[in-house]
Amino acid sequence: MGKLATIARRTFLIGSAAVAGGVAFGVYKFRQEAPNPLLDELPQGATALTPYVRIDAQGVTLITPRAEMGQGIHTTLAALVAEELDVAWDSIRVEHGPPGAAYYNRALVEHNVPFSDLDHSTAAEAMRSAMRVMAKLVPMQITGGSSNVADLFDRMRVAGAAARFALVAAAAQKLGLKAAQLKTDNGHVIAPDGRRLTYVELAPAAAAIELPARAPLKAREQWRYLGQSMPRVDMVGKCTGTATFGIDVRLPDMVFATVRMNPAKGAALVKFDATAAKAMRGVLKVVELPGGVAVIADNTWRAFQAVQAVQCDWAEPGYPASTMAMMEAIVASMTEKSRDSRLRDDGDVDEALASATVSAVPAVLEAEYRVPFLAHATMEPMNAVAWLHDGRLDIWAGVQNPTAARDLAAKVAGLAATQVHLHVMLMGGGFGRRLEPDFVVQAAQLAVAMAGKPVKLTWRREEDMAQDFYRPAAVARLRGATEGKQVRALDVRVASSSVAESNLGRIGLPALGPDRLIIEGAYDQPYGIAHYRATAYRTPAGRPVSYTRSVGNSYNGFFIESFIDELAAQAGADPVQMRLELLSHEPSRQVLSAVAAMSGWGQPLAAGRGRGVAFHLCRGVPVAQVVEITVTQQGVKIDKVFVAVDVGTALDPRNLEAQVQSGVIFGLSAALHGEISFAKGAAEQSNFHDYPVLRMQQAPRIVVKVLESGDPIRGVGEIGVPPVAPALANAIFHATGTRIRELPLGKHVDFA
């Protein structure tokens, strides 16, 4: 039967018949005392820990407890359970399920997947330990960090296998046969004489089955869903317009709201005059919120119009209020006093650079790179529905951290967490923005103000842009020395705000130790440079910031891979060959070799054309990209992007390819145009006209090759982002001789 997974009897409990004859199955391996999030849906006395399978009169429902933001995670997670449970793909239903500690993301928080497998530094191990302590205190059900599949690959397969074991055992009892005589097929247990029992009819009896200490898992060669490109479980609904996103929720007797907050995010509202707004048609109430106001009306458009009529006196921010002042604060933090961490310090960098300076050969290259603040700019603006009724608060929203959203909503509503029922909806983009529960908290506050009526909160696009928690700006200063055609020394210094400090403080958690997110993607690259140092400097907390797709990798990839290319040019070395000689990690070498072959690296290009390469190790996944461009009279045209990745094991090849392509497009949008600038603490961009994303006519052909080196399983939601900006910048240098050290590139060159 292949690999065996251990299940302790006391950590695998099966619930008895639920409402409408339902049964929940699951495996629980973290904390026995954590509450089962499905208990409210089961009758008195039923128990199910970490449920992923629910069977009722309507059939089999698989719980996929991670946010579906368009990345296809519900399909992949459902396949993990369906593979072992042995159900027909077209027969299952899929739900996100309620929030709960049982769905805690151990890979992201406890085992800390964002640390590379190559990272065994003392600082990294200390941080892992601190994260484990925090996770045990506050288990977080987070979707982020490309961690979903790594976290749930074993847990959800075991849940499916254990549920199948119980169903087969129940059938054996009913038929008077041995379990070994039975087989399963598409939701049925089949006897040797052809009799077929459905999982639905067996579920109540299966609830009483005592499970063995070990449950068999299929060997890879037995997989029929995993490793295949599966039909997306959300595709029909999205293609037909019948899928329900958070913004689509409608309830009887609903009222509609929007907010207007201090444009200098985090600053206070001094006073306001809502006289004009209250006199407008359809306005029901004006509610003061911390830092702003909300208008509740009989439809969303009227709320939008009325909130603009409120006269507000805004307080000044307590942080630098202009782009220039913010960047100056970042540069000023590059001092020993503000040093946050030094997670890599190989060899003797100072000596290597000093000796190079004295002898002049090898030469020392110095450069400063900068990146701006970035918005998440999700297609669906922030929204939530909240309804306070009958001693409970129901919330419908798209969130990436449902346990935090539930708990904070409970706090502002004066309720226990068990009285808050959060329904996690499909999301029109997340990219880390929906890790922040601010809009859910606002909806809960408005529900209290309109007790008994469902309140639908929708942010205007301009408010969504203005009130984003941006990806912080960053500055890097790099020094490097070459010898022959190779890099001898590399010194990387990066300064930025702490995303972890900013975010964790808002959800009531401490920031434990250094924030390695500042320097991730710079200290953990598998380059065998003898003298290699990476230092992070923490800029004092300013405007609130947060996680975005690939976080620190999104800028450190640009810093490192652009500078490595500069060193190659200085040394007169081929950029691919030099990297291949530096890489000490075989899967990384393989992806770089693959992308070079895919792109025809080394073959001559016509005049006016360029080719650039970049490599990056992101979340343990090695990825390499080559960008091809043509310089036209209208500007730089991006022709093709070639990508090679190694995910360990490809569970859904087509979806992997789509995710990598998505990351490339996201990264190109930021590389070409992405920039938030500030005046008086407020963002100067307000919508897609002045914060553009890549248009279809600009999108290049993207060719993806997925390599599989085996375990461990890794996710790909973010990995396409970091290499594309440096690969593009390197291609521009190849074609024009112009080296660009600042994003967005569109500030320096035109794009066709």
Integer-rounded radius of gyration: 27 Å
Integer average pLDDT: 90
Spatial arrangement of strands, main beta sheet? 12-13-10-20-17-18-19
Helix content: 25-40%
Terminal CA distance: 56 Å
Number of helical segments with 4 or more residues? 19
Outline type: globular
Q: Which stretches are low in confidence, meaning pLDDT under 50 for 5 or more residues running?
A: 1-21, 27-33, 43-50, 111-118
Please give the largest β-sheet: 7 strands, mixed
Overall structural class, as computed from helix and strand content, comes to alpha+beta
Strand content: 15-25%
Number of DSSP-assigned strands: 29
Sequence-ordered SSE layout with sheet pairings:
Blueprint: E1 4-6, E2 23-26, E3 51-56, E4 59-63, H1 73-85, E5 93-95, H2 106-109, H3 122-137, H4 148-175, E6 183-185, E7 188-190, E8 196-198, H5 199-206, E9 214-216, H6 235-240, E10 255-261, E11 269-273, H7 275-278, E12 283-289, E13 292-297, H8 300-309, E14 311-314, H9 323-332, E15 339-346, H10 349-359, E16 364-371, E17 383-389, E18 392-397, H11 402-413, E19 420-424, H12 438-449, E20 455-458, H13 461-466, E21 474-483, E22 486-497, H14 499-506, E23 531-539, H15 553-571, H16 575-582, H17 586-599, E24 609-618, E25 621-632, E26 635-646, H18 653-672, E27 678-679, E28 682-683, E29 701-707, H19 724-736
Parallel strand pairs: 4-5, 10-20, 18-19, 22-23, 26-29
Antiparallel strand pairs: 1-9, 2-3, 3-4, 6-7, 7-8, 10-13, 11-14, 12-13, 15-23, 16-21, 17-18, 17-20, 21-22, 24-25, 25-26, 27-28
